[in-house]
Structure formats: structure tokens, C-alpha cells
Amino acid sequence: MFFTRLRRHAKWMFVFLALVFGLGFLIFGIGSDQGTGIGDIIRDSGGATANGLSVSDAREQLEKNPTNPDAQRALATALVQDGKPQAAITYLTLYVEKRPKDQDALRELAGLHLSRALAQSQEAQVAQARASYETFGSTFGSALQLGNGQTLPPDPIDQALADRASGSVNSAFASAQESFRKAEETYDKLVLAAPNDPNVQLELAQAAQQSGNYAKAISAYERFLKLAPDDPSASIVKQQIAQLKQAQG
Prior knowledge:
The protein has helices at residues 2-8, 10-28, 38-45, 55-64, 69-81, 85-98, 103-134, 156-193, 198-211, 214-227, 234-248; strands spanning 145-147, 150-151. The chain has 249 residues and is mostly helical. The protein contains 11 helices and 2 strands; from the N terminus they run αααααααββαααα.
């Protein structure tokens, strides 16, 4: 039955709920006046321009010189402005491979990955709500006992619905985690370009925390505190460190 399946997937559900709960700190940059939340990163990424180029014009320029990093950057920006962030990620990734010290581009790329992760997290939440609706009525927490040690076999329809629902939630959650991981990798590159920027350390810590890399998150949070001990976020960051250490066991 469905609730039996839920118990089997309790670890996934716990991690998913922790992810959704933790997004508040990441999205809104709680306690910080430095503009380090996801919302700030995404808003800031929109500040770049493609010199007024349309996607078709930018793509045409890139086709003339496929290895030109400026053309890759222009197309990425045009795609973002055209509401195609996933396609933009491809070209912006190519650009930062050639311009690894371009901090603005790295921040924008990380912001695109984070934005995608948020969308995928919402998909996981919708999938979970749909699962609850579709499997409504599968109310037995364990198999019905028929006596003599025998139990009623699970209903095949309930089982199929539960399997599909669980698969949808797990798939959406895994996709979100992968996007958070890519954002974390981008922040790793940004740290190399700006090792003494406390905001970069904070952004790396938040992305690492959401990707499940608690060790890296703790290290980056501690580095942030060393670089900006009087930052308004310091008290919340200390709480995050304590919670992550507790979660590590």
C-alpha cells in the first residue's frame, strides 16, 4: 500500500522537506544586506545586455565564429532575455571555460543553475501533492491480516500509482540536486577568481548546503565569518554551521 511505500522512501521525503525548508535562507538571503540570496543573483544576472541583439542575430554572429567567447556570451545573454535560461546555460558555460576570471559571468551562470534548481524543487513539490491526491484512499499503513499468518496482497492499481508517484518525486528531487551541484561547482570557480570576497563564500556555502555537501558548506560558512565577522548575517550563519554539524552526526 501507499503508506508502506512512503515508509520505504522516508529518507527521500525527509531530505526533500529539508530542502524546501532550507530554501528560505537561500532565496531571501536572510539576515544579509549584501544581496547574496538567489533572488538577488537572478535579478543581478538580468543586468547584462547583448548589445540589443536578438537571439537570431546573436546566433548568426556565433555561427560565423563558433569559438569566439564574446559571441558565446552575447548569445547566452540574448537567450536569458528571451526567456530561455536552459539554452543560455550551455553557451555561458562555454564562455566561462575560456574566461574563468569573469566574475559577473560566473555569478550569472550560478544564478541560472540556482533558478533551475528552484523550478525543479517546485516540480518535486507538485509531484508530491499529485501523489497524495492520486493515492488517496490507500489508507492502510500495513497489509491487512487475514489470519493464520496470511496477509491481503497489495492492490496492483494502488501499487502502480504509488510507484509512479514515488518515481516522479524522486526524479524531480534528483534533478534539483544536480542543478544545485552545478551551481556549487560554478561557485568553486568563482572562489578561485575572488578568494577574499565574503559574499562569494556565503553563496558557495548556500549552494553546497542545498546540494548536500555539508562539509564544503561548513568550510565556506566559516571562511565567510573570518572575512566578514561583523556582517549582519553572522549570527544566522553560525546557526547554520551548528545545524549542519549536528546533521553530520
